[in-house]
Design a protein that fits this description.
Helix content is 23%, strand content 23%. The protein has five helices and eleven strands; from the N terminus they run H-E-E-H-E-E-H-H-E-E-E-E-E-E-E-H. A four-stranded mixed beta sheet has the order 1-6-3-9, covered by helices on one side. Strands 2-10-4 form a three-stranded mixed beta sheet, with no helix packed on it. The radius of gyration is 19 Å and the shape is globular. Keywords: Glycosyltransferase, Membrane, Transferase, Transmembrane, Transmembrane helix. It is an enzyme of class 2 (transferase). It is found in: Membrane.
């Protein structure tokens, strides 16, 4: 449905190469840079994130306001080629938010609403951080930072009080030791709960009308 609406483009990416032995993680770096160059000159800003990650503004209510704030704080510095956001793990093994489980929201299995406990310490920039890039200012992008900028452009590190990456996943090294990490409750994602649920409900209804199963 999202593809038909022109919102999502799904590209074939089946590589006849053994992942993690002959190439790292299904050709991740090639995929990222393929995305970079496909979007160049078509979009002003491009988010380089995984499906279990969200760059969440912690002051502003949307990305337009966030980018405006960043540009304002940096005096509209035209040298910014990409913006780096620090990573915070919201481990899925931590219990669901108690207010969520007792509310009408619980009928929707949305990680951003269920999981409000995160690791207290954020990773430094370049360590699991993710990016918003200005495509035409970047030559080569990596998973956690830009490898090469067009000359005169550079990275802008964003303070976590402004925005950071919410990463919803299992323990990164397997097992369940991660749940022993120092943690805090962070309900910032609930700011969008009503609009999120409204949109999800709308899409559910659309699917129920079109699905023939």
């Amino acid at each position: 449905m999202y593809v038909r609406a022109g919102i999502v483009t799904v590209l074939p990416w089946t590589l006849n190469i053994t992942s993690q032995k002959e190439i790292r993680t299904e050709g991740l770096f090639a995929a990222l840079n393929d995305c970079l160059y496909r979007t160049m000159y078509s979009f002003k800003y491009v988010l380089m994130i995984d499906l279990d990650e969200y760059i969440i503004p912690h002051i502003d209510s949307n990305y337009f306001q966030l980018i405006s704030r960043i540009n304002s704080v940096n005096n509209n510095d035209l040298r910014g080629g990409a913006y780096s956001f620090q990573n915070a793990f919201f481990y899925l093994l931590w219990p669901d938010d108690s207010n969520f489980t007792q509310s009408s929201m619980s009928s929707f299995d949305l990680s951003t609403l269920r999981k409000t406990r995160r690791k207290q310490k954020l990773h430094n920039h370049k360590q699991r951080s993710k990016l918003i890039v200005v495509p035409e200012r970047v030559v080569e992008v990596g998973n956690h930072f830009v490898w090469e900028f067009v000359p005169r452009y550079q990275m802008v590190n964003i303070a976590p009080r402004v925005a950071f990456l919410h990463h919803y996943r299992i323990c990164e090294y397997g097992g369940n030791e991660c749940v022993k990490s120092s943690s805090v409750v962070d309900k910032r994602a609930h700011f969008w709960s009503h609009s999120l649920i409204e949109t999800v409900e709308k899409m559910y209804k659309s699917y129920s009308q079109t699905c023939t199963i």
